[in-house]
C-alpha cells in the first residue's frame, strides 16, 4: 500500500513516514524539499500518482485567521484536486480536537480545511487529535530571550508518535468521513509542560503564562481542547515522553 504524507518532513510527518516504513507500507513524504508544493500545486500529480492514500499533515505557523485560511484552504483544495485527478482512494486530514467554537486565528484555517474535505467527492476521513507532547517545544521555539510567553492552554496532550500510528490505521481503513478524536492520558496546562521542558534541557529561560485575547485565547483557556469522554485515549504521559527526549539541543 502506497501512502503519501503531505508534510512528511515535519514534526508529525517524519514520525508517520518512519512508523509506516516499520509496518511495511510504501511511504512517500511530500514537501517543498521533495519537489512538491501544496500552495502552487507544483509536483502534486507526480507525487500522488499510484497512491492508495494521502495523509495531510502540512502546516503553517500563524496566528492570523486570514493567513491560516489562505494556507489551509489553498493547500487542501490543491491536494484534493490532485487526488481526484490521480484516483487516490482515501484522503486523511489531521485536525485538532475541540476547536468548533474558535473559528478564529490559526483554528480558522483548520476549520476551513475540514469544510473543504467534508465537501469533497474524494473519499476521506478527518482525524482530530489533541496537542502533541511536542507542542510545548514548538511554542518555545517561537521566542528567544530570557522570557518565553506561553498562552494559557488547558489540554490533554498526546505523543505525536501515537498520533502517527493512529493516522496510519485510519489511512489503511475504509474512509468514514470522521474518525474518533484522539487525546492523551492526562489533563495538563501548557505552561507547566513548557517549564518542565526547559528544566529538562537545562535552559535558564523562564516561561510566563499569558491569556491570549479573543475567541482563540478563550478557546485555549476553556478546556474545550481536552475533548470529551467519547475520545480514544492513549497511555504515554508527557512526563514519560519527556524522559525519552535529549537533554541538550
Ligand atoms: N502541533 C500540534 O500539537 C498539533 C496537534 C494536532 C494537530 N496538528 C496538526 O498537525 C499538522 C502538522 O503539524 P506539525 O507540527 O507536524 O507541522 P510542522 O512541523 O510545521 O511541519 C509542516 C510540514 O508541512 C510542509 N509544508 C509547509 N508548507 C508546504 C508547502 N507549501 N508545500 C508542501 N509542504 C509544505 C513542511 O515541509 P517544507 O517546509 O519542507 O515544505 C513540513 O513537512 C498541522 O496541520 C497541525 O494543525 C498539530
TrEMBL record:
Start and end residues of each NAD(P)-binding domain: 33-136
Matching InterPro entries: ComplexI_NDUFA9_subunit (IPR051207), NAD(P)-bd_dom (IPR016040), NAD(P)-bd_dom_sf (IPR036291)
Pfam families listed in its UniProt record: NAD_binding_10
Transmembrane segments: none
GO-annotated molecular function: protein-containing complex binding
Organism superkingdom: Bacteria
Name of the featured protein: NAD(P)H-binding protein
Organism of derivation: Microbacterium mitrae
Amino acid at each position: 500500500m502506497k501512502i503519501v504524507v503531505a508534510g512528511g518532513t515535519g514534526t508529525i510527518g517524519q514520525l508517520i513516514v518512519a512508523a509506516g516504513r516499520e509496518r511495511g507500507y510504501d511511504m512517500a513524504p511530500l514537501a517543498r524539499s521533495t519537489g512538491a508544493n501544496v500552495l502552487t500545486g507544483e509536483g502534486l500529480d507526480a507525487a500522488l500518482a499510484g497512491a492508495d492514500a494521502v495523509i495531510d499533515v502540512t502546516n503553517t505557523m500563524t496566528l492570523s485567521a486570514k493567513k491560516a485560511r489562505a494556507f489551509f484552504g489553498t493547500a487542501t483544495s490543491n491536494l484534493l484536486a490532485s487526488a481526484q485527478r490521480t484516483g487516490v482512494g482515501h484522503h486523511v486530514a489531521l485536525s485538532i480536537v475541540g476547536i468548533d467554537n474558535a473559528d478564529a486565528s490559526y483554528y480558522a484555517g483548520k476549520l476551513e480545511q475540514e469544510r473543504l474535505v467534508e465537501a469533497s467527492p474524494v473519499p476521506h476521513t478527518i482525524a482530530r487529535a489533541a496537542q502533541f507532547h511536542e507542542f510545548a517545544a514548538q511554542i518555545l521555539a517561537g521566542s528567544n530571550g530570557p522570557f518565553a510567553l506561553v498562552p494559557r492552554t488547558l489540554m490533554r496532550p498526546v505523543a505525536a508518535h501515537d498520533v502517527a500510528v493512529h493516522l496510519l490505521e485510519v489511512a489503511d481503513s475504509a474512509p468514514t468521513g470522521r474518525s474518533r478524536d484522539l487525546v492523551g492520558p492526562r489533563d495538563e496546562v501548557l505552561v507547566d509542560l513548557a517549564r518542565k521542558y526547559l528544566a529538562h534541557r537545562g535552559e535558564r529561560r523562564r516561561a510566563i503564562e499569558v491569556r491570549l485575547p479573543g475567541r482563540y485565547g478563550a478557546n485555549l483557556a476553556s478546556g474545550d481542547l481536552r475533548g470529551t469522554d467519547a475520545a480514544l485515549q492513549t497511555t504515554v504521559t508527557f512526563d514519560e515522553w519527556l524522559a525519552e527526549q535529549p537533554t541538550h539541543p
